[in-house]
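Two proteins, back to back. First:
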Amino acid sequence: MKETKQRLQESSTSEESLAEPGVAGPGVVYVGRIPHGFYEKEMREYFSQFGKINKLKLSRNKKTGKSRHFAFIEFESAEAAQIVAETMNNYLLHNHLLKCNVVPKDKIHPMIWCGLGKKIKPGLAIKVAANKFNRRRSAKEITDMANRLIRKDNERRKKMKELGINYEFSGYSQSS
């Protein structure tokens, strides 16, 4: 995490040094309400008509890999970003009204571009959780689990007696 933050700070300082004194620098546009089928490739092709795109990040669900229907696009110039926001705001695309706004530099989160080139593999989170659940346990963990089951079973039996319910069930401990 620290390495990522350091790389982000270095890249932001290098981008600032690359900008000429007369040029405003890069501009970031928020694009919301993105329709199904309008993904990274299509967005890059479409928005490149306005100017050179430095970065494009479509937000995706980590679990399924599906689009969360909003994106951030960094253009080489702030003027191009402003033109995109004005032109594309309320633009009807596949029966969806796009919402586009220029994001001020002070509102841009430093971690906004994290995971930019990373592909999300659907089902990976489920596999990780299953492996964690099905891992081999030590003898101490097994005894702790058994003791917890017995304790909870006894608490359930005690609560039923307090409520006046006379019901016997097979559990982890026998009623005395």
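And the second protein:
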Amino acid sequence: MYCSRQGNEAMELRIGFLGFGNVARAFARIISEREARIADQFDLRLKTNAIATGAHGCIVSAEGFDLKQALAAVERGEALNTLPGAVDAVDTTGLVAMCDADVLFETTPLNPIDGEPATEWIRKALLRRMSVVTANKGPIAFAHKELTTLAREVKCSFRFEATVMDGAPIFNMVESCLPAVRVTGLAGVLNSTTNYILTGMERGRLFEECLTEARELGVAEANADYDIDGWDAAVKIVALANVLMNADATPRSVERRGIRYITSKELKHASDTGALIRLVARAEMLPSGLKLAVGPEAVAISSILGSARGTTNALILETDLMGELAVIETNPGVEQTAYALLSDLIAIHRELQLKKA
């Protein structure tokens, strides 16, 4: 689905940003550095006309502004309203009401309690007939069916590949490559921060030391408690179950336990038995219904989940026709998450091309 607009040049898309943190800026660098390649390979030109930030202001411009200049201003700690042609928006909600983007990229921080305010911003953007690409798993965990239905009704796209396992094509793989296959179960090591901490502790390092490094690497949530206490993994397994298993769950449905109280002694005992302790997220279809759980588990070192060390993630999909499928993403960083935004953007562009064919 693509939200078509009268008067647009065929191969130009206007884009806006809700959130301009690490992921959004990495995406901005990718599309700026590869501007000519994207235009040549995909016949696609991009014009940025809105950016909402938490610390540098919110701006819109009908004519568009230079994304490289915006990046440089933010990285210097300057306000964005100094850019030529920029008009101040009061706040993010005001920006959604003012901007006229074709595709809005929503990358604001996770709220694992109710998915707000990101869900409401996405809802308002869709109602204004903007397609939305999000890296925020909260709206998928709390409102996937509603937002997907709304996008269909207004003939816009709503895409979210970046929400789980960074740039690994989980949702796109199932949607595009596994027609008629039913996903019956999921098991994954999905949180890079806890993985990094546990791997470090296995090597004799302190919990807090490893957490500090995870923050410096940019893999920890803005509130690292969401990682440590299992909220991030809970939101991810709910997002996966809602999309891939047609569930209607929320993170409150998950039996959740984090790694805060895992000790070096427990890690040593697991190692002595040929295992590693990992924060494992599971979705299982039982006779009583769907069971969702997140918690530390001992997994065999030689197993797929045992391969998840450092910031590596691993996911096993149980299916009716293809048996078990596994996806492993080795030590992803912010650039991989940013790539998922690009992947979704190109998918939207291809939908437009098919519509115009």
